[in-house]
Amino acid sequence: MNRKYIVRLADKEREHLEGIVKKLKGGPEKVKRAQILLKSDADGPNWMDQKIAEAFNCRARTIENIRKRLVTEGFEAALERKKRDTPPVPKKLDGKQEAKIIAMRLGQPPAGYANWSLRLLADEAVVLEIVESISHTAVGQTLKKTV
């Protein structure tokens, strides 16, 4: 029972969490976090982390992280999903570069080709110095957005 972050919910917070659980409001992850906070409440059930983890099918570390976010960042931060600071992979192309590749795709393919392939578009974008380097998959993702 040696917990570093102790959850003590105010009556208003407890009512809010019970409302989320009762109405299943805010999606399954938010409901699960609300249930975890309710069971972690030192003035309420005060379940052990392992018991909560088994009850809600998650790891004990998840329980610790939720309790830590409640204490360090506040009630709303503990309930909501943590937002990423940066996207997982930065975009390869800006808007102008995307427009040039799309325009190139709509134009005539080079001599000897009946249609543009993704590899051909990627190679031509490098030759025309639209981009320094690009893969055919990135070109495909750019074109997919326009369809």
Fraction of residues in H or I helices: 55-70%
Radius of gyration: 26 Å
* Average pLDDT taken over every residue: 92
**What is the helix tally?**
8
* Terminal Cα span: 56 Å
Q: What would the principal axes of the Cα set say about the shape?
A: rod-shaped
Short description:
The chain has 147 residues and is mainly alpha-helical.
Structure write-up:
The chain is mainly α and about 150 residues long. The chain contains 8 helices and no strands. Helix 1 packs across helix 2 (about 30-40) and helix 7 crosses helix 8 (about 135-145). The N and C termini lie far apart (about 55 Å). The mean pLDDT is about 90.
Secondary-structure map with pairings?
Elements (H helix, E strand, L loop, with lengths): L10 H13 L4 H13 L8 H8 L3 H14 L1 H5 L15 H12 L11 H10 L8 H11 L1
Helix pairs in contact: 1-2, 2-3, 3-4, 7-8
Main attributes?
147 residues, mainly alpha, 8 helices, rod-shaped
